[in-house]
Amino acid sequence: MGTTQLETVPEPKYRHLKTVISEALDSEFAVGEILPNERDLAARFGVARATLRQALEQLELEGRLQRRRGVGTTVAPPRMGVSVGSAAHRWPGAADAAWELADGVREVPPASVARLLDAAQDEPVHVVRRLRVSEGQPVAAELLYVPAASVPRLAAADAPSGIARAQAVLRELQGLSLEGEDRAVELGSARSDDAKQLDRLPGAPVLIVTTRYFVAGRTAAVSVATYRADTCRLTFGDSGAVEVLHSQEHSTV
Amino acid sequence: MGTTQLETVPEPKYRHLKTVISEALDSEFAVGEILPNERDLAARFGVARATLRQALEQLELEGRLQRRRGVGTTVAPPRMGVSVGSAAHRWPGAADAAWELADGVREVPPASVARLLDAAQDEPVHVVRRLRVSEGQPVAAELLYVPAASVPRLAAADAPSGIARAQAVLRELQGLSLEGEDRAVELGSARSDDAKQLDRLPGAPVLIVTTRYFVAGRTAAVSVATYRADTCRLTFGDSGAVEVLHSQEHSTV
DNA sequence: CAGTGGTCTAGACCACGGT
DNA sequence: CCGTGGTCTAGACCACTGA
To answer: Which among B61, B235, B242, B66 is positioned nearest to B134, based on CA atoms?
Structure first.
């Protein structure tokens, strides 16, 4: 057995390119360094620009490159590890720096969220918008959905839709005793509003972390956090172990 | 301020296409149904095939479509929730069905893994290859790296590199008392060998789950599991809550 | 303003799956 | 074998950034 690598099939050009460039990145480029522009690179490798771009796209997906319109393509630093749910049973924002309040409104949640809350389809809930910043750059945009029933002391039109309201909702939440959480991670593409906050183009790959917070057997809140997939490695520290160090080379090993 | 949605900029065609098709999927198509082929669709929408493909690619990334060469494009079912680390402090394979042993060899791990193990750079370790199957299809390919020091009772050339050897390694592991785990999730693209096992093309987007297992203060094993990003939603059940139901609509809400 | 990446076109051929 | 999606080309124009 051991069908290790017969590779009877001709490798597509863009995949070979990807390997070549990837190796060049390891040996000949420093983090932050600017690569030649796409037209020059394509010419240098003797391929069409579209083909070159296919290779660059995958390298960007893997967090090896960073491309910005009007600027150029640079060598990306190793992904930063962002902690997700390290200390369980703690309300969002509790002593948690790194999250920056952006807005607080009252809206009807999307159907998928309404399903997770045990709420009616058209019932408006509190929505707290937050932005997570790490190492100086935005890494995640979060929408925290809180049904009115979870924060009964908050009157309907308590604060005039803004950061003040967001603060009020979070303050109320922290009075509740959190029983547990439930988390899911999946791949998605950035909605245009998230993309703006994350300084990416709409459609950029993101890791969507959906968290349900349980109080008294019910779902008291749902958080949908959109993390930049290119720059982030989500860490789940179950034990009190050391913070995870850099790692790379998940492909083309 | 509320820069909600001025959208002064013309929306690219492929993004508009994506919205249109996405809505059509919700209203006019059933799961598993086959879409018209790309040439017809492109003609119908009055765009070049490449542009149509850009829209389809993103929809596939979001798990809404499934495309297979030689077959066609079908409407994908909702992502399945696969549990990752629901019951912590348990060795891999312990009563854990769903993982299917594939191979067991002895190899030098990639540098990134060697760094996580407290091992020397060129020291060979046991490598157990496993495949996770859920709902009848492969969802993850795992490489479990176990330094010889973690399983001292295993002689160097104990079994002739195969499933028997894999079983022996796992059996030894389960004798150890696991102290904790440490998990990280990041986006990657499938290496060609993983791609084969997962029935995808090389380069397909995957969620890479790296787990470190701690015994006696040391890293006794490292698992690198590659999950299909298109079909999987990784779930982390911290509480004994109900299994997560379907959810969708992470974008274009 | 010049230079970058992002979008788009209208073709072509290839690799694969089923018939 | 035919029809599918996958790869590739050689152009073109647009949107954005920074000088």
So the answer is: B235
